Each structure stands twice: as C-alpha cells, then as structure tokens.
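Checklist before submission:
- one chain only
- standard amino acids only
- sequence pasted in full

Submission:
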Amino acid sequence: MYKFDELKMGLTAQLKHTITEDDLRHFVELTGDDNLLHTDPNFAAKTSFKKPVVHGMLGASFISTIIGTKLPGDGALWFAQNLEFHLPVRIGDTLSVRAEIIHKDERSRMIELQTDIYNQNRQKVTSGIAKVKIIEPEPEEDSKELILVRKKVALVIGGSGGIGSAVCLSLANEGFDVAVHYFKNINSALSVSEKIIGFDRNAKIFCADIQNPAAVNDMVESVIRHYGPISVLVNCSTARISAIKFSDLHWNDFQEHLENQIKGTFNLVRSILPYMEKEKYGKIITLNSQALDSPSTDWLPYITAKGALLGFTRALAFDLAPKGIRVNSVSPGMTDTDQISEIPERIRLVTAARTPLRRLAQPEDIAKAITFLASEQSDFLCGETIRVNGGQVMI
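Returned file contents:
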C-alpha cells in the first residue's frame, strides 16, 4: 500500500493473468451475462469473430486488481474509468495489465492512472484512464504501543510437502500466522491451511513458481498485503531426487536441482530482503541435507546443489547479519516423506538400524528445529547448520 505522499508521477505497476475457462464461467455466474457470443462456440462460429470472445469487462476487472493491490493498493477508492476495447480477448490469452500515474491532485488526494492491457502478442486490447481517491486509515490511539510488538508472520515455501506441512503446523502452534506456499499440490496446501485455522491462527495459501522472479514478487507482495511484514522465510522446496549413475548424467540433471535450490532461493531472498531490511529484523531458514556429510550413491546433482546452497546460506548470513537478519540452515537425515518413496525399503531399514536413535526422522523432528530457528530464542545464531539425523553424523 502506498501512502498518498509516496505516489509520484510516472510510478507504474503491472500484473499478468492467463484467461481460463473457469474465469469465464465464474464471470457468467456472477454477472448473469451469458451472451452466446461469449459462451457458445457454435453461435460465435457464425459471426465475424469465429470463436467465443471473452467479456470485455472480465479483462478490465484486472484493472481493479492492480489498483486495489498494487497501485496504490489498500485504501484505493476507484471512482471513475473510461475504457476503449481495441481487440477481442479469448480463452488462453495472457493479459499484461499496466497502470501508470499521469496526474496527482494534492487537494482532493486523487490520482489519475493510464490503464492499458496487452495480450501475449504485445497488442493493446484495452485502454483507458482511471481516477482513484486515496483513503488512508486514521492512526490508532495506541499505535505507539502496537509498533513495539513484532507480528509473527512466516512464509513457508513448499508448505504442501511432507516437511513443509509439518513446519507450517509447528509455526502455527507457536503463534505464527502462516503463508502456505505450493506450486502444484493445492489440495495438500488447503488441508494444511485448514488445520492451521483450527489452531485459531491465520493461514492462507499462495501459489508461485519460485524460479520465476515476477511470480515470487507477486506472491511476496500478496503475503505482505494480507499479513504485514514477513518475519520468517523457510524454504523447504526441493526437486525430486533420482538415482542416476555418473555415466548416464546430463547437465540438465544438475540444472534442475541448481535452478530449484539456488535460483529459487535467490529469487525469494531478493524479493523479501527490502522488507526485512526496513524492519531491521528477519529469519531466513534453508533446508540442507545429511547427504553433504555422508554422500549417497548416484545422487550427484542433488548433493552438488545442496553444497551450493550451504555456501549460499553461509555467505548470505555473513552479509545480512549487520542488518539484523539471521540466516541459518537445518540439515535433515533421511526423513519419512514422499521424497524417499523411490528408495528401496531395505535401505531405509538399514539406515534406521544404523541410526543411534534407531529410527528415521519424522517431518515433525525437522519442523521443531526450524521452529527454534524461527523463534527469538535463536537470535544469536548466524550461519549455523543444525543437523537433525538421530546421531548418524556427529560434528
């Protein structure tokens, strides 16, 4: 959310959205506009359009999204808009919506935005001018006292996975509001969020490809808009481990893990860092692996990426510590999740038998260590790796 004084001429914001059949169906259900030109392929085929055309106002509705969530954000009162529809929009089109401040009226606390929508071919499909009044909440009488209380907000990447879901629940039990990230497994993410809500904590799911910087930025902005500053980032994301002999490896096998571990973490930190720097506080927690201490056969791409992540974590910890941001890592041993589903049962049994505590790690074991690092009790830990392996590796 921008305050009125922060809004400058030329300031821009943008978003992308691919129009789906569900979008069209929901729009028809909401508005009742079931015009056959939009909904019936046979009818549309007899017209000059040949195919169904999406309602113009469906595309234009994303102007509301950009005004209400990005520029200026919360408190925006969109009270006027003119529109010109230049080209038809169809299901499957990817729309790029852009808004730019072209006028600012200090007396009325109003701005004008040039609003343009382009399709995937960079063709302008809709344009117009929006008028928006900025409504800012009055300061609360006890605002000085509220500032002293740090809100506990955690963004858990891979929150739909085995370890990630346990981390979400553990943090919620410790009083955190949790943003549950997922990429593909929406059902698991919804299940986790419902359990957290059952703890009387706030939870919401967020979808993003962490290898896409724009998607990460949109996710972080959305989390902050819902919950306020993110105090803890936990990255539990990992690519599927496949046992491949060196002679059969291709560089793409390495690239897959490096893109996930390094590029994904880089995008996340880069997006969240400005907000943590502003708060002069934050916790960033990465998930490493015991495979660095005791390598497993044919896991070379995975172990290489985890080694790079360890170096990334330590160097980042050194850089960010003076800013009040602690960066640490948890290194699990073999953990009973879907990630080890391809490991033969015999190897799992042998690993458990060789562990001093005589069992494999459970997701909750890892989650407890991560929750400790997320808490203020770990405020003097920096660049540390906590090994959670039941005693298999003692360093």
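Reviewer check: The radius of gyration is 24 Å.
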